[in-house]
Specification:
Chain A is α/β, with parallel strands linked by helices and 466 residues long. Helix content of chain A is 41%, strand content 15%. Chain A folds into 2 domains: 2-122 and 268-304 and 354-363 and 399-434, D-Maltodextrin-Binding Protein, domain 2, CATH 3.40.190.10; 126-262, Periplasmic binding protein-like II (D-Maltodextrin-Binding Protein, domain 2), CATH 3.40.190.10. Chain A starts with a helix and ends in an 8-residue tail after the last helix. By secondary structure, chain B is mainly α. In chain B, 83% of the residues lie in helices and 1% in strands. Classes of the chains: A alpha/beta (466), B mainly alpha (536).
């Protein structure tokens, strides 16, 4: 039944897209570009104080929303739960969301609501930071780490004795992540499990994910991470920027690994709206995605030598107190392609934040499938699911049709080059799936192919298997 | 003379009796006595406050936390200035968006001139920053070098020692294996060697910490250069945004473009070669007209500023307070009139009064979230949005449940005090009412309420105080735009100005709370019969 619905929707979308492009083509002959017929022109978008909200902020501040005839208020939210609730109640029209949030909400893990996304805000951008004392113990366990510039990627192998030591004392090492369905939760679990540390499972009764855990992972909102680490309630955390650089700046912790090293170019945040809103405001949704694509492109613009040219201006905007609000110098590091692992260890990381390059902002079905496999792996999805279920669920949430429609309009208006839009042939079976990610791109050396979720799930040592 | 007593009465009613001697002195009444009073109760306190500020300025810079330095009064003033500046800039952007005609062109020229000026300044400052960065690096290197070389030498030495120990234990192991020595000797050696390693590590750690400390030390000239660049670059960015808002992003410019487009479509009727093209042109015309209409009514969506936060907080606390009054006073009167009702209410009051506002907030969040009507159609909201001031504040669920939380916590003092006031009715008054054969309403409005009024108002004053305190916490948690959210957002920002901004908010909250309290005192004094001065 669901399959049928999606197909119907798809074809309806395609039709409307054809109409639009066609209609626009007619118009172009007489007039140049034209704003869409938006259903609603004053919008409210929510965000969490993290640098990867950049496309939304830039679209507002650089006037891309205005060019689509939209006046947008961008409002900081206190935590991910409230942000999602505000989108569901309609208080917000859309928001900067964790990739897992639309998926978790749609399949009913946590708050149940049909949330969809047509735009991926960015790739990468997270890191795992441990406290100074844990870092010293890790260095004692692995002398190779005891240099100012240790070799990367750092696995959790050196952490194993620290975890064991705690277990021997009848305690558990505690670490923080930002939300049960956040990429951070899956990344830190991935990193720990890759070294054989059990990060704990969710079950139908245990909604905290502590079952069988050797390391207890608890939820802390991103901006509070450094303070919580400093107070000693947690010994490490996985979070987005600027909160890892903040730990270095304050001298309270050491980032050991970025998620670029856990999975190269992994999807991070998405722009989520409720299905109801998307259905009621199709043109507004299109206009918003158009503006976001332009903002993403602006953020990733490079000069001939490959230097990111607009990032400094973006940082200037993001450091305003009503946006991310952290100091310019703290945000600047990661956004302009540098990352401090220690005060002495500054490294070039040009792909720490990817907003547009290599079709980064396209809502790939395979990204959705990966998050679903992780939800199953750690027991957030309690029962066995078929491969088809993964594909169908991803298609209910990710809307590449909307992205393509918006991109087509931008190509028409000359704001986008056709090569910047990924090829998508709706007649092909695996349209919207990225080619398989090679094993070398993952820290544990297990390749991921979105077309075979069950096989991927079964390839891991720690985790539920189907 | 008449005026003098009016002023004195006014000061007394508003609780500013401390300025009494100033007025009397101005009228030449017992100058010596007044001057003594002024010295004791005005000058000494003022000096005390100044001493407090001076102490703050002296102590604050000595306390450095990992979240930044404790702000002195100058930093707090700077934070106030920056917040005012942000608010001012948002106001200017809003105006710029709407400018049209010659006014727009004139402003644009001004802004462009300013930009040219600022670009030069920023470049200059950036160059200065570069120099300071270099200076910082060289002075840091100079500081680090001796410690670093000491550390390196010690490390190499200990590494050698550790290797030697390893070799020693290996040799001993061979001897143990060959039964030349007892195994206990080897164990003892290993233990000793472990202790040695531990001691060496501790020694190295001390040096390492010294290095870290040196690295974390702030270099004042660099900090200054950085903050100079930051503030000028912010100003430049603001000017560039203004330039955009006066040109491509300006409403009148966009409307003009749209009108031109519409003209183009209208012209295409003549050149249309087929019926379908005519139809398309007509459709386009209709759409274009709609979009012009929409553009014409557009307003710039500014960011929330400190002034909006203050207005919203005050509005929310007033709404919550009124809710508390509407519920609390009738219930209190009933409690005072009827012993049985009082007995019924007592357990409810006793249990709910001590509940934390945070709990109420969460409960109201769920309740309001479930029943919140569509603000565009619900008559109450439509009516509210027609009131000019409320319209600009934007009523949303977060505001409603913050107000409900305020009401819930502010309810109890009003209720209890009203009940007490009604209970302690003078028996003579009751007898008078009996003799006059007043009916229930007359008794209520002519005897009971008037004689309970002083206590009722005393309760209201407490309610207002409680409500204001609760509101800030509620806003922080619910993220309803207001001073509470301002504080919370600042905490989350974790910037170098965070601490100062929170202290600034502390003063703003305190001053507004003080004003609200004064208003309540005036009300209380106006309805009081006795002449006792209001306690501060």
């Amino acid at each position: 039944m669901k399959v049928y619905n999606t197909r119907k929707l798809n074809s309806a979308r395609k039709l409307s897209k054809l109409n639009l492009v066609f209609g626009l083509g007619m118009m172009v002959s007489t007039v140049s570009a034209e704003t869409l017929d938006v259903e609603k022109d004053s919008l409210k978008f929510g965000f969490i104080k993290l640098t990867d909200c950049a496309p939304i902020v830039i679209a507002k501040e650089k006037g891309f929303f205005e060019e689509e005839g939209l006046q947008v208020e961008v409002i900081a939210q206190p935590n991910w739960k409230q942000l999602l609730d505000n989108v569901i109640t309609g208080e917000l029209d859309g928001a900067h969301m964790l990739s897992g949030q639309p998926i978790g909400a749609t399949i009913g893990f946590g708050t149940q609501a049909h949330i969809v996304t047509a735009y991926t805000l960015d790739l990468n951008g997270n890191a795992i930071t441990v406290s100074n004392s844990v870092w010293e113990k890790m260095q004692a366990n692995d002398p190779a780490l005891d240099t100012p510039n240790p070799k990367h990627p750092i696995t959790a192998d050196a952490l194993v004795p620290v975890v064991q030591e705690k277990l021997d004392l009848g305690e558990k090492l505690k670490m923080g992540m930002v939300f049960p369905v956040s990429t951070h939760n899956y990344e830190i679990r991935y990193w720990l499990a890759a070294s054989g540390i059990n990060p704990g499972f969710y079950t139908s009764e245990d909604q905290k994910g502590f079952t069988g855990a050797q390391v207890e992972l608890s939820v802390t909102p991103p901006p509070q991470m450094p303070a919580t680490l400093e107070s000693g309630n947690i010994s490490g955390y996985c979070v987005g920027e600027p909160w890892n650089q903040q730990a270095v700046a304050k001298g309270i912790g050491v980032p050991v690994v970025t998620n670029y090293d856990i999975w190269k170019n992994n999807p991070e945040k998405v722009f989520g709206v409720s299905k109801k809103w998307a259905d009621e405001n199709p043109n507004t949704h299109l206009a918003v995605v158009k503006a976001l694509i332009r903002a993403g492109k602006w953020l990733d613009e490079v000069d001939a030598s490959g230097t990111l040219i607009n990032r400094e201006e973006a940082v200037r905007i993001l450091s305003q107190p009503n946006y991310v609000g952290a100091d310019f110098d703290v945000i600047k590091n990661s956004m302009t392609g540098y990352f401090f692992f220690q005060k002495t260890d500054k490294r070039l990381m040009p792909e720490f934040n990817v907003f547009f390059k290599n079709h980064a902002s396209f809502p790939w079905y395979s990204d959705g499938v990966w998050f679903l496999t992780q939800m199953r792996r750690w027991g957030q999805i309690t029962e066995t699911k078929s491969a088809d279920w993964y594909h169908e669920t991803a298609k209910e949430i990710y809307l590449p049709e909307v992205y393509l429609e918006a991109a087509a309009l931008l190509v028409e208006e000359g704001h986008l080059d056709p090569s910047e839009v990924p090829a998508f042939d709706a007649n092909q079976k695996w349209a919207g799936y990225k080619p398989a990610t090679p094993a070398s791109d993952f820290i544990d050396g297990i390749a991921y192919d979105g077309r075979d979720p069950v096989g991927y799930l079964n390839a891991h040592k720690i985790g539920n298997k189907d | 003379m008449e005026l003098k007593y009016k002023i004195l009465k006014g000061l007394d009613v508003s609780g500013f009796a401390v300025f009494d001697p100033v007025v009397r002195l101005a009228y030449g009444e017992e100058p010596q006595k007044q001057i003594r009073a002024i010295g004791k109760f005005i000058i000494v306190p003022v000096i005390f406050i100044l001493v407090c500020f001076a102490l703050t300025d002296w102590i604050a810079p000595k306390h450095k936390t990992k979240s930044g330095q404790v702000p002195d009064t100058a930093t707090i003033r700077k934070s106030a200035k920056i917040n005012h500046l942000i608010a001012k800039r948002e106001g200017i952007k809003t105006v710029d968006f709407l400018r049209e005609g010659a006014d727009r062109e004139k402003t644009l020229l001004e802004v462009q001139a300013l930009i040219a000026e600022k670009v030069a300044i920023v470049d200059e400052l950036k160059a200065e920053l570069k120099i300071q960065e270099e200076a910082y690096k060289s002075q840091l290197d100079a500081k680090l070098k001796p410690i670093q070389s000491k550390y390196d030498a010690l490390k190499a030495k200990y590494k050698e020692a550790s290797n030697a120990r390893k070799a020693q234990s290996k040799a001993l192991a061979t001897q143990v294996y060959n039964k030349q020595v007892e195994p206990s000797e080897l164990v003892a050696l290993l233990k000793e060697s472990d202790a040695q390693t531990e001691a060496e590590r501790a020694e190295l750690d001390i040096l390492k910490n010294q290095l870290d400390e040196k690295r974390s030390e702030k270099y004042e000239p660099l900090e200054l250069a950085r903050s100079n660049v930051d503030s000028e670059a912010d100003a430049l960015m603001f000017l560039k945004t203004r330039e955009q808002l006066l040109t491509s992003r300006n409403r009148s410019v966009k409307v003009a473009e749209a009108v031109e487009k519409k003209q183009g479509i209208a012209d295409s009727f003549e050149t249309a070669t087929s019926e379908s093209k005519v139809l398309n042109a007509a459709k386009g015309l209709v759409r274009q007209e709609l979009s012009i209409e929409r553009l014409e009514s557009q307003k710039y969506a500014p960011a929330a500023t400190i002034y909006l936060y203050i207005q919203r907080s005050v509005f929310t606390v007033i709404v919550g307070f009124l809710l508390a009054v509407i519920i609390g006073i009738p219930l209190g009167i009933l409690c005072g009139l009827n012993k049985v009702f009082m007995a019924c209410m007592t357990p409810i009051i006793a249990i709910f009064k001590p509940v934390s506002p945070v709990v109420w907030l969460l409960i109201f969040q769920i309740i309001v979230g479930a029943f919140f009507p569509n603000p565009d159609t619900h008559p109450l909201f439509v009516a509210a949005s027609n009131i000019p001031w409320v319209q600009t504040l934007g009523v949303n669920p977060a505001m409603v449940f913050s107000a409900c939380t305020v009401a819930m916590c502010a309810l109890w003092p009003s209720l209890v005090n009203t009940a007490l006031g009604v209970c302690s009715l003078d028996p003579d008054h009751v007898n008078v009412a009996r003799v006059l054969r007043l009916n229930f309403w007359e008794r209520l409005t002519k005897i009971i309420i008037p004689s309970a009024l002083p206590l009722i108002f005393a309760g209201l004053r407490i309610s207002m105080g409680v409500g204001w305190m609760v509101l800030i916490a509620a806003e922080a948690l619910s993220s309803s735009d207001g001073l509470g959210k301002f504080v919370w957002d600042e905490y989350q920002n974790g910037s170098s100005l965070t601490f100062a901004n929170i202290m600034f908010a502390c003063f703003v909250i305190g001053i507004i709370g003080f004003i609200l309290d004064r208003v309540m005192i005036v009300l209380q004094r106006i309805v009081s019969f006795d002449d006792s001065g209001a306690s501060v």
